[in-house]
Specification:
By secondary structure, the protein is an alpha/beta fold. The protein has helices at residues 3-29, 36-59, 71-95, 105-129, 146-156, 195-201, 215-223, 238-243, 265-285, 287-301, 351-356, 364-370, 383-392, 409-413, 420-433, 436-452; strands spanning 137-142, 163-170, 182-183, 186-191, 206-209, 231-234, 248-250, 253-257, 306-312, 318-324, 374-376, 405-407. It folds into 3 domains: 3-129, no CATH class; 137-257, Rossmann fold (3-Layer(aba) Sandwich), CATH 3.40.50.20; 265-452, no CATH class. The protein has 16 helices and 12 strands. An 8-stranded mixed β-sheet has the order 3-4-2-1-5-6-8-7, sandwiched between helices. Strands 9-10 form a two-stranded antiparallel sheet. The protein has a two-stranded parallel ribbon with strand order 11-12. Helix 1 (3-29) packs antiparallel against helix 2, helix 1 packs antiparallel against helix 4 and helix 3 (71-95) runs antiparallel to helix 4 (105-129). The chain is flat and about 95 Å long. It starts with a helix and ends in a 5-residue tail after the last helix.
């Protein structure tokens, strides 16, 4: 069973057992009968009560198995959730008016006891009998001291949830230093200088930093290494707690995640919906401008009006981008692929104007509707240049984890000819901190750039 299926199962079973507990309570209170006068009040409140109890279970971590993986943790969470649900039930029944006044108060108390037994019992049975196929967590621990070994032991105790300690990293040694074979029963795989290669070789997808080291260099080597794709956590000192938030707890050890490679699912869905809706409206609104620009292209250099070119998109999949043609036909036939430059002789009459105000980019609305691009994201490049940048710029592949965009942080923050290295920094800033508010800000800034013509060539 997968993690998501387990969570859905937990919610469904809890919702059912909460109501079973109330039915048992009424049967106990009324000696095996369900008198309609009293039971009707429960039926009126049953949907709301179910939501309250499930919400309480969520609040106290019962749907996060990594927080409820022992009998004590389960019992503690169930007692808290059921007690809160019982108090809210009593309050709602008391203040609910005539329709809920007949809700037997003693039945609420009996339901508290039944729900404690039912919700705790099924979870403990599941912990003992069932097996969940959790997303595999192959963990490298940076450090070889006592705290690192203790953390490795706590991680090993979570093997049923898919956690595995692949080994330890000696943070205090440099290249060429003799490493111990193992510490505390865990293998020592190398030094911090080689952590990216070790993570790739041992298929580690999570690195937890315990020992104080040059954290900036470590994170850069991991995040920007082409062969590694990992989450990095630190066991925080007071300074890190002051500037961040705890993201997870392993045993009793707090962890802070310092790499955020993904965004919430709601963001991706909302962004896609906004992209399609706005692109459709924009295509209609800008159609007169597009028609006038097409006429200008024909008048300046004849047909064709549109220009398509293969670019590299998300996951390095190729796609064809659409633009209004602003250069002479077969512009690269003699010189090969080159980037546009200031006062480029290949640009046709009127092409500078179309580029200055980004009118040539309007056909990319079609790419957005097709799902190949977004309004905001790293600008897509041709494979010829991508191959160069990947070879020359560490971490350049990282930008292909998101859809390319018509505009991006690099376009509104840097100049048209900003270096690939600097553009990559802007792209990574966006990727690791993207929100709908940031998207709106970038689009607003893009409109200002378009209206002023700043940065165009």
């Amino acid at each position: 069973m997968s993690r998501n299926r387990f969570i859905v199962l937990s919610i469904v079973v809890d919702a059912a057992l909460v109501n079973v507990g109330f039915v048992f309570a009424f049967l106990l209170r009324f000696e095996g009968r369900l008198p309609s006068f009293n039971f009707q009040a429960y039926l009126v409140l049953a949907p709301l009560l179910t939501l309250l109890y499930v919400g309480g279970a969520w609040t106290y971590g019962l749907y996060d198995p990594e927080r409820a993986d022992t009998a004590w943790a389960v019992a503690r969470g169930v007692v808290a959730a059921v007690t809160v649900g019982t108090l809210l039930t009593a309050a709602i029944a008391f203040f609910g008016g005539a329709r809920t006044a007949s809700f037997a108060r003693s039945a609420i108390l009996f339901a508290w006891a039944f729900d404690l037994v039912l919700l705790t019992g099924w979870r403990l049975a599941f912990l003992r009998l069932a097996r969940v196929s959790w997303p595999e967590q192959r963990v490298l621990i940076v450090g070889t001291g006592t705290a690192s070994v203790e953390l490795a032991q706590k991680v090993s105790e979570r093997d049923r949830w898919g956690w595995t300690v692949t080994g330890l990293i000696d943070a205090s040694t440099g290249p060429g230093h003799k490493l111990p074979a193992e510490v505390g029963g865990f293998p020592v795989l190398g030094g911090a200088h080689d952590v990216a290669r070790i993570a790739a070789e041992h298929r580690a997808n999570r690195v937890i930093v315990v020992s104080p080291i040059a954290l900036r260099e470590l994170v850069e080597s991991l995040v920007l290494a082409d062969e590694a794709n990992v989450r990095v956590d630190v066991v925080p000192e007071l300074y890190e707690i002051f500037i961040g938030t705890v993201d997870a707890i392993v045993g009793d050890v707090p962890l802070m995640e310092i790499t955020h490679a993904t965004v919430p699912r709601y963001y991706a869905a909302a962004k896609r919906a906004i992209d399609v809706l706005v692109a459709l409206v924009a295509l209609v609104v800008t159609s007169p401008v597009l028609l006038a620009a097409a006429i200008a292209v024909v008048a300046g250099d004849g047909f064709p009006v549109f220009f398509s070119q293969e670019r590299v998109g998300r996951s390095q999949r190729p796609f064809r981008i659409y633009k209004l043609r602003t250069m002479v036909k077969d512009a690269e036939e003699a010189c090969g692929p080159v980037l546009a430059a200031e006062n480029d002789a290949r640009i046709i009459s009127g092409g500078h104007f179309l580029r200055r105000f980004r009118i040539d980019e309007i056909p990319q609305l079609v790419n957005i509707i097709k799902g190949e691009m977004s309004f905001v994201g790293p600008r897509p490049e041709r494979s010829f240049f991508v191959d160069q940048y990947v070879a020359e710029t560490p971490g350049y592949r990282e930008r292909f984890n998101v859809k390319p965009g018509v505009t991006g942080l690099a376009q509104v923050s840097g100049g048209y000819a900003t270096t690939p290295e600097r553009k990559l920094k802007y792209d990574l800033i966006y990727m690791y901190h993207q929100t709908l508010a940031m998207d709106a800000q970038i689009v607003a800034e893009t409109l200002r750039v378009v209206l002023t013509g700043r940065g165009a060539r």
